[in-house]
Amino acid sequence: MDTKLFDYNLSEDLIAQVPLKDRDQSRLMVVNRSSGTVSHLIFRDIVNVLCPGDCLVLNTTKVFPGRIFGKKRKTGGKVEVLLLEKVGESRWLALTGGARLRTGSEIEFPGTKLEAKVEERPSPGRAVLSFRTSNGDLASDDMLFAAGDIPLPPYIKFPLSDPDRYQTVYSVREISAAAPTAGLHFTEALLSKIREKGVNIAKLELAVGADTFSPVRTERIEDHKMHSEWFKIDANCASLVNSCKGRVIAVGTTVVRALETAALHAKMTPGAYSGEGFRIVPCEGRTDLFIKPGHEFLATDAIVTNFHFPRSTLLMLVCAFGGIELIMNAYRIAMEKRYRFFSFGDSMFIF
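Below the sequence we write its predicted structure tokens.
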């Protein structure tokens, strides 16, 4: 399938640079797959399109403050480290910018007791770093996070006055390099209203990596190598999804990937999958599932999602669910009506 099918031209002034004052005041485009209709609401009104018996599934991971500034010990050259994923005790895969780093290079972080050594260079711009204190002890995650800042996507040009606005109100564990942004629109009050309507809320974890924003650079999407991310679905989440009497609604593409991976696990588990009323099994591990047009959705009935980059695997996932023609037309409408795009932008509800 040609990657150009998922391309569009976005005016830079439609890229949201700052979050709205109130999370739930963003716009919500409602896309009906059956009728092909598109309607427009304010996000707080999502409660009106949810039904008793639905199950809303959230990704509760929190963004860790993984942007740390240092310098090369030998030359003093400035180094920017962006932690991506923990790969061992005090060892992290990171993006590195600034001074040129080779295997064996040592980095100091002024104003802290942290030091790092480059163990590997797995690919250009990336390094596996081992962190220690100036005393030679292994550096804890807490020490790293105390030295770092919350990383924002590169298209956001202004610092946040309140870093918590790049976290969901229900975030718990600091294991993501980027926010599951579809959930940024929810407030505690809105979630309470959703529960009062008789909608169950299930929670899972998927550690969002920076690669989630990477565009597909191959001419055919089938030639793209999908990145992998760690996820966990516990027994409680699986039970809520499997007992759902209404629609299973994934908040974000990360939740879709986790649910659909767990559904494939269910199909491969003897006696676990009946094809009806038993969608997923509890599971934990890594997923490199590339959801593209032609995918058979086994666990997801509706999606809450933001507006995504051209040629991104996220847009391809949404098109797989809603249909290429319908979703790309919805994007054209969004641009005409000046919806705000990307992390701090507006939202879609597709059912």
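The domain at 67-147 is CATH 2.40.10.240 (Thrombin, subunit H).
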